[in-house]
Amino acid sequence: MTTKKLQISKLVVDKTFHARFGLNNDAIERYVEMYQSGQQKAIKIQSGSNRVIDGIHRLEAARIAGVDSILCDPLDVPDHLLRKTAYKLNDDHGVPLSKMERNKLIADLYFEDGMTQNQIAELVGLDRTAIAKIIGNVKSHNTDNERKSGDKRKKIADNDWTPIVRLSLSGESQEKIAETYGVTQSTIAEGISKLKNFLLEEYTQGKRKTEVANDFSLTVEETDTILREYGDPLNFELNYQTVWTGGRDKDFGIKHPGNLPAMIAQNLFALYTKPGDLILDPFCGGGMTLDVAQDMVGRECIGFDLTPVRPDIRKHDILDKKPKLQRDPDFIFLDPPYGPQKEGAYSDDEQDFSNLDIDKFIKGMTRVLGYWSSGRVAICMSSLKKKGEFIDLPVLMADALRTQGWSLIEHIISVYNAPASETGYWIEKARTGRWLLRKHLHILVGQK
């Protein structure tokens, strides 16, 4: 930003993007005294047009004080962001807007500039319900006025809104779209915002992202782009406790002996990743984590396995070397088969973790944990009882984490339905043999 002096006559006051109904006399008088004392405080203007973004009271005071030129900071602000920028700058130091001025600003940001209700709520510090009410009141008032005046403006067909939103996502200006469809810019802004809010509502009420995309005739990528505007919305109920319950979900991952409940990956990804993060699953099994990440906002998951069962899972031996990626993952999801507990269940390969004895299993996992120098990792592991010997694998995994420089930041217990242990045969075996059926999983989360 380069401050420069400009003649007052060259500055432009465009009231169309300012929320004020009038100027504050007390503020003007204070600025007149400032100019008379020989001091100046730069106003903000739009580069090129010299339109005043912030400093209308100072400009008026300069005229009254007889000042010919004042300090200006030119800002590269596009036209559709002038209103938002003017508000933010004024909110930092200026005279507060009245309630009526604020409500007008909210309506203009929504109808004229195409901001979403969530974006406006964050900007002005109100919740979305209050924003929706203000916009609804303005819309109702405008509709009544249109009826009274016999407004005959062209309407847009319902099936035109998807291509309109697609144009907007591609970077086309609302002004150009409005010109193409022969309607006002506010009509375009309102329609785009309404469609996006409907899309968000469908997603947050529990629909999968692919279903939402189909409902609105958009691609999954376009749907994801829209959802990112709202931050990181979820289409499931996040579990805020350290005990998680839930069964396997057939909608995530194909049938596979190693599948875990999808809610485990959903909660881990929601708690420990953010939109834009890369997730790695080197024991991808039936691809549950791939499907969960695809259904969330902005996550990319890459899966490897020694014996891939889906085309989107890459073949790789994690014991041999670190998987090759374009960048290091932000989060590593580790759900290895537990040594002799799953011996022969996945393959006959001697490198398969399920076919390793306990010592080799622990050494192998310790080596794997040393592949990465930063990020977060989650290990899903149950204790093991084989031929009367109890092996506390979660404790051994916690030791392996620390050995490789990971700090243990959370320990979660997942209790889920294990079909084998629900049968009468195994219940009777446990009862008569006086031993316990394993019904829970430990989830260790590390960070470095």
Structure description:
- This protein has 17 helices and 14 strands.
- The protein has helices at 25-36, 56-65, 82-93, 99-111, 117-124, 128-149, 161-169, 174-181, 185-204, 209-215, 220-228, 262-272, 288-295, 358-369, 393-403, 419-422, 424-433; strands at 4-7, 43-46, 52-54, 69-75, 243-245, 278-281, 300-305, 313-315, 331-334, 376-381, 384-386, 389-391, 407-415, 440-447.
- An 8-stranded mixed β-sheet has the order 5-13-14-10-9-6-7-8, with helices on both faces. A 4-stranded mixed β-sheet has the order 1-4-2-3.
- Strand 11 (384-386) and strand 12 (389-391) form a beta hairpin.
- The model is unreliable at 149-153 (pLDDT under 50).
The CATH architecture name of the largest domain reads 3-Layer(aba) Sandwich
Main pleated sheet = 8 strands, mixed
Intertermini distance: 38 Å
DSSP helical segment count? 17
Task: List the strand order in the largest sheet.
Answer: 5-13-14-10-9-6-7-8
